[in-house]
Amino acid sequence: MDKDRVEGSMKSVKGSIKEGVGKAVGDTKLETEGKMDKAAGKVQNTVGGMKDTLRNRE
């Protein structure tokens, strides 16, 4: 498994937590940061998945 997949998954989880806390306390800045972290994590996870696919084809 590519390290990008692991790091991307961790960013996504961190983003979900930030988003939830932001919603709970009414902090729109924290909620937005969480959404951005989640999106960045999903992109990084996808890149890692593509790397894994290419590596497995060799």
What would your notes on this structure say?
This protein has helices spanning 3-25, 28-57. The chain has one domain. The radius of gyration is 14 Å and the shape is rod-shaped. Helix 1 (3-25) packs antiparallel against helix 2 (28-57). It has 2 helices and no strands. By secondary structure, the chain is an all-alpha fold. Belongs to the UPF0337 (CsbD) family. This is CsbD family protein. Pfam families: CsbD (PF05532). Residues 4-55 form the CsbD-like domain. InterPro entries: CsbD, UPF0337_stress_rsp, YjbJ_sf.
- Number of helices, where a helix is a run of at least 4 consecutive DSSP H or I residues: 2
Average predicted local confidence, pLDDT: 94
Count of domain modules: 1
Biggest sheet overview:
none
Poorly predicted runs of 5 or more residues: none
Number of strands: 0
| Structural Rg | 14 Å
Based on Cα principal axes, name the global outline.
rod-shaped
Helix-strand sequence: HH
Distance, first to last CA: 15 Å
Structural class: mainly alpha
Report helical residue fraction: over 70%
The proportion of strand residues reads under 5%
